[in-house]
Design a protein that fits this description.
InterPro entries: BLH_phosphatase-like, Prot-tyrosine_phosphatase-like. This is TIGR01244 family sulfur transferase. GO terms for molecular function: transferase activity. Keywords: Transferase. This protein has 141 residues and is of the alpha/beta class. The protein has one domain (4-140): Protein-Tyrosine Phosphatase, Chain A. The protein has six helices and five strands. The longest helix is centred in the middle third of the chain and has 13 residues, at 73-85. The protein is globular and about 40 Å long. The protein starts with a strand and ends with a helix.
C-alpha cells in the first residue's frame, strides 16, 4: 500500500487490496472512497467487495468512479461532500492515486490558490500541472 497524505484529513492511494482494508481502518481512516471504475479491475476488487470489507472494518465506503467522462461538477461535489462529512480522515483510491488527487484539487479550486493546490499535490508526489487551466477556470467562477 502506498498511502500519500494530501491534507491532514485526506490521503490517496493506488489500488488497494481487500487485505489492506483492516490496516487502513487501524491507521485511523474512517472513510474509504473508491474512485476506480469496476471495468478497470478484476472482480475480486470490485466496489461491492471493497464495500463489504470496508463495512466489516468499520469504515464508511463511498463509490465515486472517476473517468474522463464522469469527472463532472456533480462528482467533484460528491467527493468534496464525502470528505467534509466524514467523521475522520479519508482515504481515496484509484489506479495510481492521480484521479483521486485531481478530484480533490478541482474541489478546492474555488477556495484555495491554484499554485497552492498544485504544490500540495506535488508534495505528495502527484504532478497535476496539466489541470492548471481547469483549476484556474473554476477559480474565476
Amino acid at each position: 500500500m502506498d498511502i500519500r497524505q494530501i491534507t491532514p484529513d485526506y490521503a490517496v492511494s493506488p489500488q488497494i487490496e481487500i487485505s489492506d482494508v483492516a490496516e487502513i481502518a487501524n491507521a485511523g481512516f474512517t472513510t474509504l472512497i473508491c474512485n476506480r471504475p469496476d471495468a478497470e479491475i478484476p472482480p475480486t476488487l470490485h466496489a461491492t467487495k471493497m464495500r463489504t470489507a470496508a463495512k466489516a472494518a468499520g469504515l464508511k465506503f463511498v463509490e465515486l468512479p472517476v473517468t474522463h467522462s464522469t469527472m463532472t461538477p456533480d462528482l467533484i461535489a460528491a467527493q468534496a461532500a464525502a470528505i467534509e462529512t466524514s467523521e475522520g480522515p479519508v482515504l481515496a483510491y484509484c489506479a495510481s492515486g492521480t484521479r483521486s488527487t485531481i478530484v480533490w484539487a478541482l474541489s478546492k479550486a474555488d477556495t484555495q490558490p491554484v499554485d497552492e493546490i498544485i504544490a500540495t499535490a506535488a508534495e505528495a508526489g502527484y504532478q497535476i500541472e496539466g489541470v492548471r487551466p481547469h483549476l484556474a477556470a473554476i477559480a474565476k467562477d
